[in-house]
Each structure stands twice: as C-alpha cells, then as structure tokens.
Amino acid sequence: MASVELTIDQILDAVRQLPGRQRQKLLRELAKSSPAERARAAARRLRNSYRMEGHRSKRMSQLLVKADAGVLTSAEGDELDRLVTEFEKKTLAMAQALVASFESPEQLDPANRQSSR
Fold first, then answer.
1. List of residues 6+ apart from 17 with CB closer than 8 A
2. I need a labelling partner for 80 at 20 to 30 A (CA). Which of 2, 53, 59, 98 fits?
3. CA angle 39, 42, 48 (to 5 degrees)
4. Phi and psi of 7, rounded to 5°?
5. CB atoms within 10 A of CB 94
6. How many CB atoms lie within 10 A of CB 63?
7. Residue 2 — pLDDT band, cuts 50, 70, 90?
8. What's the CA gap between 54 and 39, in Å, rounded?
9. Would you say 67 and 80 are in contact if contact means Cβ atoms under 8 Å apart?
C-alpha cells in the first residue's frame, strides 16, 4: 500500500470534513489511546484488587479522626501505624502494577501478577 505524507493542517481539514458521527467516533478512539486515559482505565481495573478491606479502612478513618482531635491512645496509635503501613503497601503495590501494565498489559490479569498483599 502506498503511503502519503500529509501535513497536520491537511489532516485537520480532512477530520473537519468528516460527518459528525464519524468525527465523534474518531475522537473517542483517540481518547482511548491517550496515556492519561489508559492510566485511568488501568487504575479502575486494578483498584479493587489493592483496596483495604472495608472494616479496616473504616477503622483507619476512625483512628485518623481521633488523632486529629488529639484523643488517640497509645494502643490506638500503634493500631493506626499498622493500618497506615498496610494502606501504603497496598498503594505502592497498585502503583507498581499500574506501571507494569504499561510495560506489559498481561500484568493486569491477576493470575499473571505477583501480589504483595
């Protein structure tokens, strides 16, 4: 197949001449392939696999409120430290999986990735 070198202006003119539906479809396809959209989609797919259990997340929130109010006991402080550490580890693991998904899309499949949870 022969190729044709087009300028940006020629490409833009051609896109402007597309019927509305085709132009919108083209824009949707371009948006899907943008790095930002790929990152958001990958994060949505990965998020649940790295989320803290509901009761642990709720407890961490309760302890953070107490810490902000200055009424946290020593034992609660230790518990909060453990929960924050767990949260940070899960967040780091998700970030690493997100980076890996750009390097190797099959990393998004939970069967193919090593979990640090």
1. none
2. 98
3. 130
4. -80, 165
5. 19
6. 19
7. low
8. 25
9. yes
Asked whether the whole model's pTM tops 0.70, one would answer no
Domain extent listing, the chain: 10-104
Q: Which residue has the tokens 């929960």?
A: 83
Q: Name the token pair of 27.
A: 């824009």
Residues 49 and 58: beta-carbon distance below 8 Å? no
If one counts every other C-beta atom within 10 angstroms of the C-beta of residue 98, the result is: 19
Name the token pair of 18: 């597309």
Of 117, 55, 85, 113, the closest CA to residue 42 belongs to: 113
pLDDT tens for residues 37-82? 778 888 888 888 999 999 999 999 999 999 999 999 999 999 999 9
